[in-house]
Write a structure and sequence with these properties.
InterPro entries: PIN-like_dom_sf. The protein is α/β, with parallel strands linked by helices. The chain has a single domain, classed as Rossmann fold (3-Layer(aba) Sandwich), CATH 3.40.50. The protein is built from nine helices and six strands, in the order αβααβαααβαβαββα. A six-stranded mixed sheet has the order 3-2-1-4-5-6, sandwiched between helices. The longest helix has 17 residues.
């Protein structure tokens, strides 16, 4: 299957008009984090326990975001629209099912471990428990989480300025489509960037929607 040129679509949306953040963002922002992207971001060290692996994600979020909702994919509901992406990443190879608990040491390769959906779902549940114990909110999708990430971001922006952190153009498009111009502010930032919130790769979704609406009239 030919891979979609999502970067081109994102560029087109950006170039349609001024979409950069221009307002001063308050310190009390709420962040909606793409959990799938988050899981891929951090390395896992062999010999550490699964509980310690989960804790490194908790610490990572604590260092960066005061208030966060982590939205996680699901792998128990059958085929997903992103199965071809997962197949491409794993080259069609599924890793062995691993029996593990919080205190079990991690002895595999992260990439191999995550190619098995049962492993991945069990780890997601374990990570969610660790996040909730640290007072972070989690949301679980039945399958691919893109729609739930966007929905959560839009809903949270009704009462709080909200930044969605992810790396999928699908989420960006969904945010532009569903956001309301009367919200407290909705923004999108790639988790691949370490730049400040005033950098060019931070989208003001309301501005983007207004520009798209004007161009379509």
């Amino acid at each position: 299957m030919r891979q979609a040129q999502k970067a081109t679509l994102a560029d087109a949306l950006w170039n349609i008009g001024d979409c950069a953040v221009s307002r001063k963002l308050d310190s009390e922002l709420l962040y909606v984090i793409d959990g799938g992207s988050l899981i891929l971001r951090l390395p896992w060290k062999k010999g550490t326990t699964f509980g310690e692996v989960c804790q490194q994600y908790v610490d990572y979020i604590k260092r960066r975001y005061n208030h966060a909702v982590v939205v996680l994919d699901g792998y128990t509901s059958g085929p997903s629209i992103k199965d071809h992406v997962h197949m491409r990443r794993s080259k069609g190879v599924e890793g062995a099912k691993i029996v593990f608990k919080t205190m079990s040491p991690f002895r595999s390769k992260k990439e191999n471990f995550l190619t098995n959906n049962e492993n991945k779902q069990k780890f997601i549940n374990m990570l969610s428990d660790a996040l909730v114990k640290s007072d972070f909110q989690t949301e679980h999708a039945d399958a691919d989480a893109d729609a739930l990430i966007a929905k959560t971001g839009v809903e949270q922006s009704i009462s709080h300025p909200t930044v969605v952190i992810g790396q999928d153009t699908d989420v960006l498009v969904l945010l532009v489509f569903h956001c309301t111009l009367s919200s407290h502010g909705l923004f999108y930032r790639s988790d691949q960037s370490n730049r400040k919130l005033t950098s060019i790769n931070v989208w003001d979704i309301q501005k983007n929607k207004a520009v798209v609406r004007t161009r379509s009239n």
